[in-house]
Each structure stands twice: as C-alpha cells, then as structure tokens.
Amino acid sequence: MTDESSIEFAKPDYINGRFGNPKSFTDWKGLPSPLDVFKWKALEHNLSLIPTEEVLEKNLPVISPEYDLKSELSATWLGHATVFVHLEGINFITDPVFATRASPSRFFGPRRYRKPPSKFNELPEINIGVISHNHYDHLDAEAVKQISLLNSKMTWFVPLGLKTFMDSIVGGAKVIEKNWGETETIEFNGKQFTILCTPAQHWSQRGVFDRFKTLWSGWALLGSQHKFFYTGDTGFCDEEYKKLGKKYGPFQLAAIPIGCYCPRWFMQSQHINPEEAVAIHKHVKAEYTMGIHFGTYEMGSNEPYLEPRELFLKAGENLPEGEIFTLGHGVTWKYQQK
C-alpha cells in the first residue's frame, strides 16, 4: 500500500530559460511542426462549422446566473474554462476569460459565440483566482485587470514565470507563483484552505518569441470537508492524475476540459478528448465532474461544435446518473453528498 506522504509529482524540465514537459509524460510527442500545421489545414476535413444562432440558443443558452453562496460547494459555468466556485465560504474563479476574441486583437482570432453570462460588476466577491497558463483563451488580461480592480484584496495563483506579467495588470491584488506539487495555505474568515499547483501536459506562448518561457498547470482548492480540482489545458499524463487521486482524493468536484481534440494526431499531446476526460475523473477520484472548455469559442480544432458534450456523456454512460455533467452558460450546480 502506497504511503500518501511519499507520493511526489513530476517536475517540469527547465533548460536555457524554457520549461518543458518531462520524459515521464509518455503521451507528449512535442508540438506539431509547420508541415503538420499545413497538412492539418490543407488535408483534414473541418467539421467545426459553427451552428446557427437558433441552434446555439436551443442547445447552449446563456442565462443570467443565480450564484449560490450558501451551499458548502457550488459551481457556476461562465463559459469555456471559466468556473466560479463557492467552497466552504470562499469564492474562487478559474481562468477568467470574457473577451470577444481569444487573441491579442479584437479583429481576428478565435471568436466567442456565447456571450459571458455575467458582467464583471455582477460577479460575487472573488477571493482567489487561478491562471493555468498564458494562452489567450485562458489568460484574458482585461478580465484579470477588471476583476482585480473590483476585488483588491484577492490573491491570484499562477504557474512559474507568470508573476511578472500578472503583476503588471492586477493593480494592488496579490500574485503568488507555484511549481507543480507546491501548495500554499491561506486563512479566510477563520478557516484554512490549501491551494495546490498540479502537473499538466501542455505548453505556453503569448508572443512571437516567448514559447515555453512560462509554466502551465492545473489547480486544486482544498477545504476542510470539500475539494475542487481544475486540470487546466492538458494532454493525458495519466500517472500524475493517479498520484493526485491517491494523495489528495477524493475530490467532490472536478472541472475537466472536453473540447479541442480533433484531429487526434495533431491535438493528442496538448488536449485530452472526452473519453480521457472521463478517465481523469476516475483517476482523481472525483465524486462529480463538470465538462468544460467547449461550446463558447471557435476552438481552432476540427470536431463539430456541439460534439464534445455528446461524446463526454456517452463515455460516462456507465457511471451513476449525474456523476459527470455539463452546464449551460450561467447555470449553477450545487453539491449533494452521495
């Protein structure tokens, strides 16, 4: 029987100022080459046509959230990888992205097809924010700035290398950097919470010359009775998720990406598919898992826009009803103990 205290997470490579996925991530085959990108765009059949507004309204409506700040654990999906979590009295947000386009310009790049359910000033007070990596669909500088202005006492947690950029946009808010496996204990309203930085199989780039200059990660929020886990963007580094489940599980709720997986030969190293999302749900011993990272932006991948949800629920069809689920934009989920 494994002693939980002896379990150690992998650490990223760090060579000549750039991070890398370690050799133990056997599913990491590196990023596609320029030739691969050409082959994908020129030869692969793209099925990702955006549905009509009528179809989107029917299948992915956007509603004004009714945040639950009374339950011990609740979560509201705000689109893509943005989840507002209320856990034992503390308010937590993942990768807040509200931009019309997930790019450095409002004129080009992946367009948002489902508007944000809340304006910044409609969000509840936020105590903790986490950023998984610096891609534009996960780090929206204007959103971070506005949330920080409205919550000057909040703390942001970011992976290694990202603090300098964050400090330039958060005003007086606090920013803490962490490596994989590192934790920070905070006290809020007389209660202690632990923030854990978890491994992820991905990459980083925000400008032309900064690829791999900052780290990527997932995050967990650990309360006294409830635990929440967010993978961030990731390929299938399954051994790390097994370690996470053994050392810190069970998690009452996980938020796991289910979109941006096609074509598989191109996306496999950097994005899990819906079946792998269900496997991670099991590895981390999640009681419930919310499928995210779909149905909000044009994803830059070839799967049909609404397919991730269908495949995710199909992959989990042998699990108890409601154990894995997706939400509409602005919908709130409330934890019910099994």
Automatic annotation (TrEMBL):
Gene Ontology molecular function terms on file: N-acylphosphatidylethanolamine-specific phospholipase D activity
GO biological process, one term: N-acylethanolamine metabolic process
Record's protein name: Metallo-beta-lactamase domain-containing protein
UniProt xrefs under Pfam families: Lactamase_B_2
GO CC annotation: cytoplasm
Gene3D superfamilies in the cross-refs: Ribonuclease Z/Hydroxyacylglutathione hydrolase-like
Classification lineage: Eukaryota, Metazoa, Ecdysozoa, Nematoda, Chromadorea
Annotated InterPro entries: Metallo-B-lactamas (IPR001279), RibonucZ/Hydroxyglut_hydro (IPR036866)
Ranges of residues in domain Metallo-beta-lactamase: 91-294
Species of origin: Panagrolaimus superbus
